[in-house]
Amino acid sequence: MNEDMKIAVVGDADTVALFRLAGVGRAVVADDDVGARFDELVTEEDVGVVIVTEPVAQSIMKKITQVKSQKELPVIVEVPDKRGKMEEWEDSIDMLIRRAVGVEI
Question: Exposed end of the chain (fewer CB within 10 Å): N or C?
């Protein structure tokens, strides 16, 4: 990944606000157009990681699956929102690591 790559976040207003405070510059608050806005983010050349909250990910799962199967970048990471479960998040990270390096941690 190029050092100029950006991180983007897509989620509810609270989650997006927290990531913006942490320095994430590209942020999309989920609305009726979230699918189209996600499509725009994943085609931007300088976006290397897209963080998506689980509820949003569920609503656009077909798009996420398509991007993951066709492109190496951006890496799409699903995270829980303020109501999410950490166990599911840990399983998702474990799966990403296994897929990337072929080793279970």
Answer: C
Query: Measuring CA to CA, which residue among 10, 6, 8 is closest to residue 58?
Result: 10
pTM of the predicted structure, to 2 decimals? 0.77
Please state the domain extents for the chain.
Answer: 6-101
Domain 6-101, what architecture? 3-Layer(aba) Sandwich (3.40)
Give residue-wise pLDDT tens across range 36-85: 999 999 999 999 999 999 999 999 999 999 999 999 999 999 998 888 76
Give, in order, the Cα–Cα distances in Å from 13 to each of 25, 52, 64, 103: 14, 12, 20, 35
The DSSP annotation for 76-96 comes to EEEE--TT--HHHHHHHHHHH
